[in-house]
Each structure stands twice: as C-alpha cells, then as structure tokens.
Fold this sequence. Notes:
By secondary structure, the chain is of the alpha+beta class.
Amino acid sequence: MQTEIAADIAAIEAISSVPTILEAVAAITGLRFVCIARVSADAWTTCAVLDRLGFGLKAGDGLDLATTLCQEVRDSGRPVIIDNVSADARYRDHHTPLIYGFQSYISLPIHRADGSYFGTLCGLDPLPADLSNTATVASMGLFAQLISKHLESELKLSESQSALLSERDTSELREQFIAVLGHDLRTPLSSILLGAELLKREPLGAQAAGVVERMRRSALRMSTLVNDVMDFTRGRMGGGIALNLHSDAGLQQSLEQVVAELQGAYPEHRIAQDIDVPGCVYCDSGRIQQLLSNLLKNALVHGAREEAVLVRAIARGGELEISVANGGPAIAPATIGQLFKPFWRAAGHAASEGLGLGLFIVSEIARSHGGTLEVTSENGATRFTFRMRAGESVERRTVVRA
C-alpha cells in the first residue's frame, strides 16, 4: 500500500501544471490552504499542497482519515462545499471543523480514467467564503477533471510511451489542456478582479480592506500566470506570439515604467538603468515591455542580491538593443542551452518561483520581432541581450492571431 501511495504522489508531482492549479484555486476561492489528497479506504495522504496558513503539511504527510470530510466525499462520490460552518446546520457541530478550525471548506472527488477513486481536490480557510456559487463550483470541477486527465496521461506514459502515444502527440495533448485551462480561467478571474476593484471603492474596515487587497493581488498574480500560459500555447501551437506592430515614440517611457514597477516590487535590490531610446521604434511596445519585465525579474530573482542589476536600452543606427545584467555565479554552458525551454527550471529552484515560462516567452517575443537573443555568463556576471532593427525601414509584418 505504501508503495502504491508513493507512486501516486510521484504521479501528481510529475504534472507540471499542478502548482498553477493550486494557485488558481486559491485565487478564485480565497482559500489559504489548498491541496490534492490521495484518499484510500483507510488513509489520507497529501500529494501536493499550497499552504498559506502554516499547517505545515507537505507532500507525503498524512491525516487520520476519520477526522477529514474527504472520507465523506469518497463514500458518496459527491463534493462537500461549506460557505460558513457556523451557519451550516449539517456541519456546525461536526467534529472535523472543530478539529481543524475552519469556517469555509470545499472538496471535490478526483477519479482515474477507469472510474476508480483517486482522492480529492480540497481547500479550507478559517474565514467564511462564497464557495457554492456556480462559477466557483464549475471552475473547481474543471481543475479536478484536468488533474484526472493528467493522471491518465502520466499512467500511459509510464506504462508504455511508445505503445500508447508518441512524444509529439503527448506534447500536443498537454498543450491543449493548458490552453483550455488558460481560456476557461479568464471569465472567473475577470469577475474576481472586477469585484475586488468595486469593493475597494466602498468604505471598509481595516481587516476587510486587507482581505480585498489580498484578493486583488492574488487575482493579478493569477492573471499573469494565465497570460503566460496563453502565450505559451500560442508560441507552441500557433507558430509564434501575436504582435501589434506600430511606430512607438514612447518606448523609452514604457521601459522606464517597467524598471520603476519592478524596483517597487523588489525594494531590497538595486537597479541601475541606462535607457536612451529617442524617436520612434517600430515594434509591439507592450511585448517589448513584457520582454524587459521577464528578463529583469529573472535577474532580480537569480542574481546576487548585494550587486545592482544593470538595465541598458539603446536605439542607435536603426537598431534597438536591450540588455539586463546581474552578478552572481556563472551559468554553465550546458545550462544556458536549456534556459529558453518551456517549464524548465535549474535544479534547486522552487516551483513557487513561477511556471518556468518567462525566458521561453522572451525568446518567442524576440523571434516574432525578427530579433536575436543571446546570453553571456562569465567572470561573475550574466547578461541577456536582445537586438532588433528599430527604424521605419524594418519589415512591416502584421501578425494577427487569436
């Protein structure tokens, strides 16, 4: 049994979209503890967890099944959803909320492709939450189905990759799942952002204002994840990232805004800038901002904290050059060759740092602009440099993709 559970934990850990799913559930529901649990007839085991309440559970940890509501989900095959324990006649005196101290709770069953029961996608919070609304329940159902689909794919791959699916077919299938996830998240995410903005306009107490602000930040973070996922699927399935090319006379201000925003987000780091982009640059300025933002964020996260990150953007002789340099240990040549692959992370870097799509998207933006991107790393400094033709003479490609 222990071997079987260990294999199930490994199967969940092998699904690269699991951290995104847990972040999405937390953002949509407002719950601060979310996990995927393997639930057998006599055991409850954590497979993946997002814990902002400090419960201390990690993958492989177990709970007494009799103390959980996941046993009820397993026995009935139906979700358990509680908006407010104190106002719920069925659960207000139940032992599980009393043991774990939650007021809001949701748990949906996860089934394998053959219909057998795997476990639950569940979450809880000490505060009440509106979980039973149609949009939240539908989104949670999508996530549970997505996990089930990925479990099926992982099982097929582990048993006989060559006999079941070719590498290309598997890759396309996963990208389609990611595309569905990104598309279907947009509507509930937009609702959350709109609701948070409306609530901010109302007079609120300090605690309520803090909750609203956390909701807004979570939704914005989730929006970034969704945008990265959609860019990934366009890049891999649509032949390149879509561009809105035009002559932009304000690119310098746009790049300076990126630096200012990230300096505010990382106040403990120093950022030095040399930006001189006069006149018009024919480009998609929003995508160039995204390129600089991803490169600068990468430098801030991975560079030596005691050394300033250097941002340089120069437009001269019909060419635009943007570079970001940071101090720290040199990157091995073999590693440099992996940097622009999707979902790739260096060993020892946590999944919480992002999806591993930032540099892949940078490379796709550079390619779509007909530009080049190079990396040098030696003598304690790493530099990413993007170059493209900047003048009006650049080939006027109009790329229109959904």
